[in-house]
């Protein structure tokens, strides 16, 4: 009997070793992260007897903890030199002074190239009808709408859309804009940039509580290309109770946009498919750039059902009738995702769907399920990234891998996160290195212009750190 017992233990040990050896291959083949598997198990076991329901919840909790760490940490407080800043952007050039909502509407209706419309400190509330903008500025004479100092002008929108920009060369700066609709579905956009609204700019604004804070799309065969969203904070104070798309920067059909140095947080969709994105570009555009942004999918709104994705080229795809070429052979071409910090997403941090000739370089992803390049029309150079998760080509996607530091998917199933452990306290927003930063050699691969800056606004020098920054302290504003 003892001999049989020893043989049984030996056999069990051999089986355990074989399973352990096979685990990486099995997990990589299935390709499902624990954070994705957990809600599926909980959903599939719901509605059964109490033992099955309880078991499903326990297994889901274990998987989530292995992948994302224990819950309960206080939401991080982010004081960074990305997003809206206390120092005013632009220059106070005098110009047209307004102090009431009606005066602002009138000034926008009569604006001429070169006008600077400055709002007096106070609260401006708009209801019912959106604010149409049809007067064109010029490349050498933009029309500017601004507050002289950030935090002094508060625009409250109880409208489906706020500023509907259908004319070129408009710039908005230093404003605080908030959706105040009773129903979330009634506050769609703070800015809707359409048709001839090319060379639009949002600089140093704080925009909260919309479904798609800034929406960009073509109209009547015209496309609002070459826009800029810079040092703008886009956030939500609550979960969005809507079936409509929830994506703070929703860019469709337009090309040549730069989305730079913004803070994008807490975009949680409660209803419908429960899928939301921090920002995407899709619909057949090209040459769009997402660079030096901080995307924190769940900064304060945590532990919610659904899927949050950081940045995407292609999003969830576009209906043919909305595509720039009428077909969307590709959703994006030649677009770049560079030097971004993406944190705390219940799904992937970067997702490519039908995005050809893309460049995904020098990004840092923490507490996401990595980078996905999906479908045969997607191809990407992926280089210099620091990824707390895997880099994967799915369903025929093509990845040209450079020198990245990533983590195999299987390690999440055993609670091992070597990239995450490089940082001092990422769950609280402290991305200082525990020790020396991980360094690599080259700086000259595709996707990096000669004057490229890192997340913190510092110029790169060889050897460089993997990911978006060399020193996170450089991302903190000067005191």
Helix amount? 10-25%
Overall outline? globular
Mean pLDDT: 91
Structural class: alpha/beta
Residue stretches low in confidence (pLDDT < 50, at least 5 long) are 11-20
Strand order of the largest sheet: 1-2-5-8-11-14-17-21-25-29-32-35
DSSP strand tally: 39
Strand content: 25-35%
Task: Please explain how this structure is put together.
The protein is an alpha/beta fold. Helix content is 14%, strand content 31%. It is built from 4 helices and 39 strands. Helix 2 packs antiparallel against helix 3 (50-68). The N and C termini lie far apart (75 Å). Residues 11-20 have low confidence and may be disordered.
List keywords for this structure.
479 residues, alpha/beta, twelve-stranded parallel sheet, ten-stranded parallel sheet, 39 strands, 14% helix, globular
Short structural description:
With 479 residues, the protein is α/β, with parallel strands linked by helices. The chain has four helices and 39 strands. α2 runs antiparallel to α3 (50-68).
């Amino acid at each position: 009997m003892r001999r049989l017992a020893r043989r049984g233990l030996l056999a069990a040990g051999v089986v355990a070793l074989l399973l352990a050896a096979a685990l990486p291959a099995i997990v990589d083949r299935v390709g499902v992260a624990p954070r994705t598997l957990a809600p599926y198990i909980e959903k599939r076991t719901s509605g059964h007897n109490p033992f099955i329901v309880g078991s499903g919840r326990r297994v889901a909790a274990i998987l989530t903890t292995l992948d994302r760490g224990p819950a309960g940490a206080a939401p991080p407080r982010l004081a960074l030199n990305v997003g809206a800043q206390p120092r005013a952007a632009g220059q106070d050039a005098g110009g047209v002074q307004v102090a009431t909502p009606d005066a602002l509407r009138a000034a926008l209706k009569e604006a001429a190239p070169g006008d600077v419309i400055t709002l007096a400190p106070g609260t401006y509330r708009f209801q019912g009808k959106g604010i149409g903008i049809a007067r064109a500025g010029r490349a050498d004479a933009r029309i500017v709408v601004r507050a002289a100092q950030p935090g002094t002008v508060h625009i409250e929108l109880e409208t489906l859309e706020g500023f509907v920009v259908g004319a070129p060369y408009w710039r908005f700066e230093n404003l605080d804009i908030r959706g105040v609709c009773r129903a979330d579905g009634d506050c769609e956009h703070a800015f809707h940039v359409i048709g001839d609204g090319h060379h639009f700019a949002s600089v140093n604004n704080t925009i909260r509580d919309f479904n798609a804070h800034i929406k960009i799309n073509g109209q009547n065969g015209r496309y609002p290309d070459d826009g800029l969203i810079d040092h703008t904070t886009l956030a939500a104070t609550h979960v969005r109770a809507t079936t409509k798309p929830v994506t703070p920067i929703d860019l469709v059909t337009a090309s040549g946009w730069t989305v730079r140095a913004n803070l994008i947080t807490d975009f949680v969709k409660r209803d419908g498919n429960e899928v939301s994105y921090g920002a995407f570009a899709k619909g057949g555009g090209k040459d769009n750039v997402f660079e030096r942004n901080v995307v924190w999918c769940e900064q304060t709104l945590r532990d919610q059902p659904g899927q949050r994705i950081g940045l995407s080229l292609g999003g969830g795809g576009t209906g043919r009738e909305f595509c720039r070429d009428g077909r969307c052979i590709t959703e994006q071409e030649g677009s770049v995702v560079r030097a971004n910090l993406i944190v705390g997403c219940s799904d992937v941090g970067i997702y490519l769907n039908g995005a050809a000739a893309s460049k995904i370089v020098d990004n840092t992803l923490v507490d996401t399920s990595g980078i996905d390049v999906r479908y045969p029309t997607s191809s990407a150079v992926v280089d210099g990234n620091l990824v707390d998760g895997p880099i994967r080509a799915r369903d025929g996607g093509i990845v040209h891998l450079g020198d990245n530091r990533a983590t195999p998917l299987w390690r999440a199933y055993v609670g091992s996160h070597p990239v995450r452990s490089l940082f001092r306290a990422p769950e609280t927003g402290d991305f200082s290195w525990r020790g020396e930063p991980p360094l690599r050699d080259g700086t000259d691969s595709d996707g990096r212009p000669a004057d490229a800056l890192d997340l913190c606004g510092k110029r790169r020098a060889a050897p460089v750190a993997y990911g978006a920054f060399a020193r996170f302290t450089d991302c903190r504003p000067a005191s």
